[in-house]
Amino acid sequence: MAFGNGQDDDLADDLSGDEEVEGPFDIEDFDDPSAAAIGRLDLGSVLIPLPEGGQVQVELTPQGAPSAIWVVTPNGRFTIAAYAAPKTAGLWREVAAELADSLRKDKAQVSIQDGKWGREVVGTTPGGDPQAGMVRFIGVDGYRWMIRCVANGPADKMDALAAEARNAVADTVVRRGKNPLPVRTPLPIELPEAMANQLRAAAAQAAQQAQQQQAQQQQAGPARRSAQGSAMQQLRTITGG
Question: What ranges does the record give for the region Disordered, renumbered to this chain (predicted)?
Answer without folding.
Answer: 1-31, 205-241
